[in-house]
Amino acid sequence: MDRLYIFDTTLRDGEQVPGCQLNTVEKIQVAKQLEMLGVDVIEAGFPVSSPGDFNSVIEISKAVTWPTICALTRAVEKDIDVAAEALKFAKRKRIHTGIGTSDSHIKYKFNSNREEIIERAVRAVKYARRFVDDVEFYAEDAGRTDNEYLARVIDAVVKAGATVCNIPDTTGYCLPYEYGEKIKYLYEHVDGFAAGKSILSTHCHNDLGMATANTMSGVLNGARQVEVTINGIGERAGNTSLEEVAMILKCHKGIGIETNINTTKIYPTSRMVSSLMNMPVQPNKAIVGKNAFAHSSGIHQDGVLKNVQTYEIIDPHDVGIDDNAIVLTARSGRAALKNRLNVLGVKLDQEKLDKVYEAFLKLADKKKDINDDDILLLAGADRTQNHRIKMEYLQVTSGVGVKAVASLGLNIAGEKFEACASGNGPVDAAIKALKKIVNRTMTLKEFTIQAISKGSDDMGKVHMQVEYDNHMYYGFGANTDIIAASVEAYIDCINKFQ
Ligand code: KIV
Ligand code: ZN
After folding, report:
1. Which of 26, 60, 99, 350 lies in disulfide reach of 22, CB 3.0 to 4.6 Å?
2. Alpha carbon nearest to ligand 1 atom 6, residue
3. 170: CA distance to ligand 2 center in Å?
């Protein structure tokens, strides 16, 4: 079996999604889970981009032992200096530097020419090698770069010391056969690959829904590293999903390529990332979607009952879906909650566990069975603790043939405010009351209520986008009362206003 290296960029390319930003504590939690999952490389951030990213790379480097920690840079010396500094505590470290190589990037982004781009790429790789032995080069927009020129760039950076060469299909434009041919062309025209001096890496975006197909085509044609994210999150339509590539290789052993992924950790990792980033997983998402293993048609159900292999190519247990998982209730003790949190990859100190348990008991009063999503939400709930604006109370009356009326109490930096408003439905009334207190010109642009999945007492989850001062702010709220969840999400947006 050949070994394929898994490079996870959930915390870099994935985290670039508007509204999905994590704080350092949450990033460490995800990084530790990725380590348990068995990824080889964690791209922890783009240190020069913000103090938050710089700090996260430092803290993840300290928290994680086995995976290589990677930091992204442009082909700019200052970026590389900052990345090297951020990586100082990493046990294994990699600098990921690069530059756009397609004609449009060269002309419009850099106002440069092909030869100068090769010089800049080589200079950046050599400079990065002064700090670390492991340097990955990315040729941004390689998907739309002509193969002959791309091979010249890649040959030059391999000679300059690049240990990995990343060939991003940045815009998700390539067809699988084209992307595979590109990887094959590079493998055949750059001596360093067959000589074992460097390996080729895929990095595919999903704009045309072909990220996984392109990645697999790259692997079948010689790539030995794949750049992926949990749940396929990433800018626009996202990146290649880690879980899809890992399960393709597990199901198709004949390909003869294996990864270090412990597939039973896939589902808990997916839940954790979805919950911390407030990014719902589409129900029909391969491997980790709610419906991925749900057979609803009579013919399928009949077949599966006779023999699961009739319609199931993956045993749900192989990806960590445990139908018999203990459902927690009001009678569950701290130990049961702690145990379930550990299974989900969340480790809390005693003080935090006590707080989460208190919140758990309150929720269990309202809701019979507490599921994994609820537990993850509770464990992340103190994200709002330092918020300036908090909801104190909300009362709404609504019905058919009457106007909805809401009265709302807010605590803003310790001071109490109240307002009443009527509206075209309970959410409208509650938000109008909120706007009477927080008197700013803001517009609700998007409002998503996640469907109740388990029962009428389930938590409602609300995602919102609010425009204020020409900026878009993303907010999230979760509550057994869907109107309260909506107000929480709006308040979450306002708390982020600059
Ligand atoms: O998609 C892309 O080109 C990237 C690079 C910065 C690696 O994310
Ligand atoms: Zn990317």
Report:
1. 26
2. 140
3. 6
Which is the closest atom of ligand 1 to the Cα of 168?
A: 3
Backbone torsion region of residue 68, taken as left when φ is above 0, otherwise alpha when ψ lies between -120 and 50, otherwise beta: beta
Report CA(365)–ligand 1 centroid distance (Å).
47
Q: Quick one: which ligand is closest to 97's CA?
A: 1
Q: Which of helix, strand or coil describes residue 16?
A: helix
Q: Is the dihedral of CA 244, 249, 255, 259 positive or negative?
A: positive
What ligand 1 atom has the least distance to the C-alpha of 205? Answer: 1
Q: Ligand 1 centre and the CA of 140: distance in Å? A: 6
Q: How far away, in angstroms, is 395 Cα from ligand 1 center?
A: 48
What atom in ligand 1 is closest to the CA of residue 142?
Answer: 3
Pocket of ligand 1 (CB under 6 A): 13, 138, 140, 166, 168, 170, 203, 205
DSSP string, 140-183: ETGGGS-HHHHHHHHHHHHHHT-SEEEEEETTS---HHHHHHHH
For ligand 1, atom 1: residue with the closest CA: 170
Q: Output the residue whose Cα is nearest ligand 1's atom 5.
A: 140
Write the residue with the smallest CA distance to atom 7 of ligand 1: 138
Q: Which of 166, 170, 178 is nearest to 234 (CA)?
A: 170
DSSP category for residue 49 = G
Specify which residues 8 forms β-bridges with. Answer: 42, 228
- pTM, full prediction: 0.82
Closest atom, ligand 1, to C-alpha of 140:
3
Q: What are residue 43's DSSP bridge partners?
A: 70
Question: In tens digits, what is the pLDDT along the chain, a chain of 498 residues?
Answer: 899 999 999 999 999 887 788 889 889 999 999 999 999 999 999 999 999 999 999 999 999 999 999 999 999 999 999 999 999 999 999 999 999 999 999 999 999 999 999 999 999 999 999 999 999 999 999 999 999 999 999 999 999 999 999 999 999 999 999 999 999 999 999 999 999 999 999 999 999 999 999 999 999 999 999 999 999 999 899 999 999 999 999 999 999 999 999 999 999 999 899 988 888 898 899 999 988 887 666 676 677 777 777 777 889 999 998 765 667 888 888 888 888 888 777 888 898 899 999 989 988 888 777 877 788 888 875 656 678 999 999 999 999 989 999 999 999 999 999 999 999 999 999 999 999 999 999 999 888 887 555 667 677 888 888 999 988 888 888 888 999 999 999 999 999 887
Burial letters 286-309, b for 16+ CB under 10 A, else e: ebbeeebbebeeeeeeebeeeeee
CA 80 to chain centre: 24
How far, in Å, from the CA of 387 to the mean position of ligand 2? 32
Protein residue whose Cα sits closest to atom 8 of ligand 1? 13
